[in-house]
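Example 3.2
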Amino acid sequence: MDFFELTTIYDWERCFYKIKDPWKDFYKARTLEAARIYDQTRDHAALIGVNQLISESRWYHEGKPYYKVWPQIVDEFIRTPIDINSNLLHPPHDAFLIRLPKDPILSFDTPEGSHCVQTILVFKSEKTIDPEGEEITDKEEPGFIIWINVGEKFEFPDIKGKPISCFVNVAFKPDKTIEECVRHTIRSTDEEDGGITVPASIIEAAIRLTVGVCFLGTGSHKILEYDVLADLLDKYRQLDEASPERKRIEDKSARRGKCGWNIGRGLADRYLKLPRGVSYEEALRTAGSRELLYQHTRGRHWRKLKPGPDKPWKKHQVVFIDEIVVRKDLPPKPLN
């Protein structure tokens, strides 16, 4: 399956203006220039430009980590409630990218045409960091700056399109649940680059998807898998998790540019397929006098796990509980 990739400002200007500067020099110069313009004009677009440059430069500084989220899990992340205290949310990196499949999932229509969410660039905004990696500003509330990429604006023929992004600032208050924080999120769109207004439902879905990736990226779960080279995938899956060979495969893949993970790959193979033709009388006879007549599926949900008594220093961990079949000894509910 093919996934979207992010075209950064640095990528676009290298293609259009043929610049040769290293990314560190480029982002440092452009950030200082944008900050100077904002100090002089107090223009909102200039402030958005500063934030985007800082977010992208930090992503480069982190090694450009990414998470490819497969379609089988996107809908579950969006629909699963997150009634969990926001202080348990810890991003896996100071900046990371979420890549969605090229088969549109989060799509919407505007007067300019149809669009879909392609990538989500997430920057941990508890501290603002300059391109050299030095902290320059502290914020009172931890949160995210999220760039929702909804396509490219093609201004010139044969030139890579300029990214169109929606800017979202998400603050998490320690005494609130994530659900409460999402509902009170400050939403704003970048009218300077493309002028496309992203619907609130799409923005909320992107935030929930980001939260889900953060929980999985900081824990350990069977639906999170390192993105290794395709010709090494079968061998990688057959190895034990503690095998040193797995680490060697991951390192080899990273040298080839794969600094990321897959979320939900292979879930479709585990979906429960219920057979038809099971009668009520047969189910009743099999169940005997028990209250439950049929097996049923318990839906996916987030769960907070406390550290064990032998490890009191560890933090609470939030894990994603996959759907399970309850009472497999009972027959499935008839479909007809």
